[in-house]
Structure formats: structure tokens, C-alpha cells
Amino acid sequence: MLMPDNCPSVLLIYTGGTIGMIENPDTGALETFNFDQLLKHVPELKRFNYRISSYQFNPPIDSSDMEPSYWAKIVKIIHYNYDYFDGFVILHGTDTMAYTASALSFMLENLSKPVILTGAQLPIGTLRTDGKENLITSIEIAAAKHPDGTPIVPEVCIFFENELMRGNRTTKINAENFNAFRSFNYPALAKAGIHIRYNEHLIRQPDPTRPMKPHYLLDSNVVVLTLFPGIQESIVHSVLHVPGLKAVVLKTFGSGNAPQKPWLIQQLKEATGRGIVIINITQCQSGAVEMKRYETGLQLLQAGVVSGYDSTPECAVTKLMFLLGHGLSQDEIRHRMNSCLAGEITKEDEL
Ligand code: ASP
Q1: Is 163 in the pocket of ligand 1 (CB under 6 A)?
Q2: What SS3 class is residue 276?
Q3: What is residue 351's predicted lDDT score, i.e. its pLDDT?
Q4: Ligand 1 contacts CB of residue 130 (under 6 A)
Q5: Is 170 one of the annotated active-site residues of the chain?
Q6: Most-buried pick from 55, 78, 235, 253 (CB within 10 A)?
Q7: In whole angstroms, what is the distance from residue 89 CA to residue 157 CA?
Q8: Which of 214, 243, 273 is the last residue of a domain?
Q9: What is the tens place of the pLDDT at every residue in 198-246?
Q10: Is residue 73 in a domain?
Q11: Which residues form the domain of 237?
């Protein structure tokens, strides 16, 4: 079909995951289909008067195999095609989608176009799939513009089951239901019902005087350490002495509290003294760390642990990888972990 020159244009990047699968009628097993056949499975796409092109990972991957090198590949694809499309839709397995969305929010600095990640709990080739709805609405959002021609959502987002969420605020919360993602600490950027209602005051805007700046380098010498009652000194010692370790995401209790055992505070203090960055985030799904609220949190602060505020674990891990990838000093990383780079944290003074 011939499209007018000014018709909306969207690049679909298919990385893999359930959405792009179809049930083999003979074996019943889920298999990936060639994305060139997308129109066969989603004929509704023809009804958009959009120019839709696609790029397919070859082979498509289950998102459990997602890696920083694939994030760099996605950034490269977006950067390469940046001037040719109004927006980008990334089809991705749900399992690690929140990590990819968080990583991309830092790697695509000063993004001025929509990058919408979506997927499905049921393959697009099955009758009750949620994939079609997610895909079609994501395309519409990726192409949506204000009357002056600027995109409505120039952010990395996840669209799932009628909600558009800031990507670096999301977490996968359900392995079964269609509403698999939640953004506990930041409201939805849009809700899709009969109309797509955007909460425009919540959407970040780029600096129009600067171009989008792609970043490719990540350093994954990071570990997540979850505290629990009875945690052993020898185990904490081993984790903090892993060769090459540069940063720790410490998942503490409630509003950022840890056991007051002297050995724990000592170990953390020694680790920060050796240059390891330790970020305090809560194990609770919702809410923020307030390290000055209880004595137990204050002790962590005195040991050199930095507040991760209301960051999700996915965001804390990928932000650390991103900052470490820039070869910054411990002080610079601590400072930037304390600053909001892409709408990922709400600082206490903003509450
Ligand atoms: N294991 C799949 C993946 O994350 C699940 C999904 O797509 O929802 O790739």
C-alpha cells in the first residue's frame, strides 16, 4: 500500500518472548514465527494508515537470556533509525522486560521519541491472546503526537493490559494474569479505555536544544543482596569479597532498615571503604527508603550506604551498571545514584 509522506511511522523491534509465538498444531508446543508473517497473525495492523517496519532478533530470545550486549544492540537499532520513525515499539518477553526498560531509559539520554516495550502472557497466535491489544495500542502510543507535531510520550515505557507506565518504575508482579506489570511508586502515564487518556503532567519532556545521546557501555559487576532474619556473617562476607565486585543493591526491610548486628555494619563499612558502592532499597514493593527515620537505617548511612529512595530493584541494578560503565569514581556514582536521571526516583524533598 502507498502511504502519504507524512503518515505516522513506527519501527517494531521484535526481540523474542511469548508474544511472537504460535502453537504448533501437531505438537502443541510454542514456537517462534517469522515476524515477516506478522500481518498474517495481526491483520488489524493494515487498518492503521501507518508505515510500520520491523526488525527481528535472529534468533529471537527468551527474555531470560537478555544481556547488556542486547540492550546495546537495541540502542544501536534505535539510534540508527532515529530520524526515520516517529516512535519505536519493542516486543519483548515479560520476564526481564522491566530490566530492559530501565536500562534503555538511561542508555537513551535525552530521548525525544516514544520507545514502548510490550509483550504478552499468551502468544499472538492463540485465540485469547493479550498480545494483539498490547501491540496495537503500543503502536498507537508510539505514533501519537501533539497538534504541534511533538510526540506525546517521549519516554521509555512499558504498555501492558491498558496501562502505560514509565519503564524504569515497573516491576513484573504476576506470572499468570494479563495485568503482569505494576508501577507502584509512580502513577500511570496513560490509561487505555475507549480513549487513550494521557496524564500529560506526569510525562517527562526532553531538552529540545540537545540531541538524543546513545550510550553503549555497561559494567555488570553488581550484585543484589537481600537481607533476611538469620542472615549469616560468613555469607555476607563472601558476597562483599567477590573479586571484581563494584556495587551492591542491598534490599533492606521496610523503610531501609537492617539488623543492628555490629558485624554487619562493620562489613558494609569496610566494603564502602574499599570503593564498593552500596545502594539501599526496600524489599517492599511500594514505598521508599528513609535512612534517617530509624536508628537501624541511620547506622547504614553512617557506614557509607547510599539511599536508593523508591527505586525498583530492576532500576537500581541497571542504573549502577550504566554509571559503572562510564568508569566514574565511587563518589560520582554515589552522587548520581542520589540524583534523578530519567524520572526513576522520587527524592524525599519532592514528596
Ligand atoms: N519466558 C518468556 C520471556 O520472558 C515469557 C514471556 O514472554 O512472557 O521471554
Answers
A1: no
A2: coil
A3: 46
A4: no
A5: no
A6: 78
A7: 10
A8: 214
A9: 999 999 999 999 999 999 999 999 999 999 999 999 999 999 999 999 9
A10: yes
A11: 222-350
Structural domain count of the chain: 2
Instruction: Report the CATH number that the domain containing residue 192 is assigned in CATH.
Output: 3.40.50.1170
Phi–psi pair at 177, nearest 5 degrees:
-80, 160
Q: Is 161 in the pocket of ligand 1 (CB under 6 A)?
A: no
CA-closest residue to ligand 1 atom 7: 93
Catalytic pick from 18, 32, 296, 312?
18
Residues 201 and 250 in one domain: no
- The verdict on pTM exceeding 0.85 is yes
Q: Is 62 in the pocket of ligand 1 (CB under 6 A)?
A: yes
C-alpha cell at 143: 505514533
> 159 — phi, psi (to 5°)?
-110, 125
Q: Specify whether 116 is located in the same domain as 198.
A: yes
Residue where the block lists cell 526481540: 15
Instruction: Please write the tens of the pLDDT for every residue from 256-308.
Output: 999 999 999 999 999 999 999 999 999 999 999 988 777 777 899 999 999 99
Do 245 and 288 fall into the same domain? yes
111 Cα to the center of ligand 1, angstroms: 26
Closest Cα to atom 3, ligand 1: which residue?
Answer: 93
Closest by CA to 74, choosing from 58, 57, 93, 94, is 57
Q: Can you list the residues of the chain whose pLDDT is less than 50?
A: 1, 351
**Same domain membership, residue 191 and residue 274:** no
Last residue of a domain, one of 214, 245, 262: 214
- Burial-class residue 234 by CB neighbours within 10 Å (0-12, 13-18, 19+): exposed
Pocket test of ligand 1: the residue of 14, 15, 18 to mutate, having most ligand atoms within 8 Å of its CB, is 18
